[in-house]
Amino acid sequence: MNRLRALSLALACMLTALLLTACDRQEVQTRTYTVGMEATFPPYEFYRGTEIVGIDVDILKEIGRRNQVQFKLEDMAFDSIITAVQTGKVDVVASGLTVTEDRRRQVNFTRSYAGAKQVIIVPEGSSVKGVDDLKKVRVGVQHGSSGDTYVTEHICEPERYTNGALAISAMNAGKVDAVVLDNAPAENHVAGSHGLIILPEAVVEEEYAMALRKGNDDLLTMLNLTLDEMEADGTLAAIIERHMRENTPETEQQADSMAGRLADDFRTDFVKNERWRYLADGLLVTVEIALAAALIGIALGFLIAVVRSTADLTGRLRVLDWFCRVYLTVVRGTPIVVQLLIIYFVIFGSVDISKVLVAMVAFGLNSAAYVAEIIRSGIMSVDRGQMEAGRSLGLSYGTTMRSVILPQAFKNVLPALGNEFIVLLKETSICGYIALQDLTKGGDIIRSQTYDAFLPLFAVAAIYLCMVMLLSHMLKKLELRLKKNER
Ligand code: GLN
User: Fold this and answer.
1) Which of 74, 75, 98, 180 gets mutated to test ligand 1 (max ligand atoms within 8 A of its CB)?
2) What is the distance in A from the centroid of ligand 1 to the CA of 459?
3) So what's the pLDDT on residue 49?
4) C-alpha 335 to ligand 1 mean position (Å)
5) CB of 115 within 8 A of CB of 207?
6) What pLDDT is attached to residue 249?
7) Could you tell me the CATH number of the domain that includes residue 123?
């Protein structure tokens, strides 16, 4: 009876705590709004050091100041930005977002706050002189952008890149002949690289506005009223004008020799503006995620393996075994990128949860499936006689499993487990899909700022390689030690 009372007391406490946090969250949400943006879009949103700055950021700051609310910025892939606002992952999108009829069907737009146009960027001396010439060449665009839609519907099938800067790097590397992009970032990119020009003929005129989930009318009204006010008192124009004036990164004189150019590139890619920090910070995130995911993977994978082999060996735990098998089939049958996106956008869709945590869970759950099968194969590879011997000595099934079977199984599967961790470590490089700044994304940000693909990509590859070599070395040592214990 006493136990029952204690249990109900504990339950009541938990419920109250849950309710209190829910209320808390409600209160925070009325004051802090999350904003989705893709922060490689200067001068609207871009990184200065590790901070996101730009026209959209300043407009939001001003709206926040006037209404005593706060905006939390979320850098994310541009092609998931509309989904993010629809699913409630973010409250607003402010990302130099063009108003289009297709998008209007999915989301509500505020009034427009800036005019823009899609322009054509080409290498100096290109045969492309205007829109008509685009039909004959390879055109690069930013995936999911209004430029992408326009070119696809009216001109040709373009090559799609994650952002405008990467499309321009591709043009620098000779992969495409022209890039169609919004005029303001185009000007910034052209000023930042050598030998590129913007053609005078624009592809299409556009308007930028912020986007909200349909039905989020209070926020929409607040944004519209404040944007009206800011237009009337000249603040809006002043913010845009100030950023446009600053929107010309200095181009540096290029060295003549190959070695000189490499040294210059090295300086711009890593030393200038402390860009090496993107790699260092990214490395930390990558290691954090991989470590946590490996732990989740081992723990859960181990449990699944034990359930499955117990079912195989003794015929018990049939129901649990069925669930485990379904889990393995689903996890191993679907790509990890899709799992990551589902976990982030659907399962944790409207929960304000750290992206690092989401990634740890996603990779952990995924790895568990592979670890489970590796460990199970280890258990099954131990001679059946060992179990029988243990049992006939009077040991229980559990004890025989724990002290006879599992240690041998573990030793057998160590190389395969090591392999799984190596794969896991490298697999985390897809974190950029949910705009997590891991090592790979760190390299992407550098590329988007310097338009140099070569050094950042090699640096990222070299860092992964070093980590994998270190991991292999440690695993080999562990294997040797286990072998020594055997004798
Ligand atoms: N204006 C373009 C669009 O809305 C690109 C915006 C961006 O890349 N941030 O599609």
Assistant:
1) 98
2) 29
3) 77
4) 28
5) yes
6) 64
7) 3.40.190.10
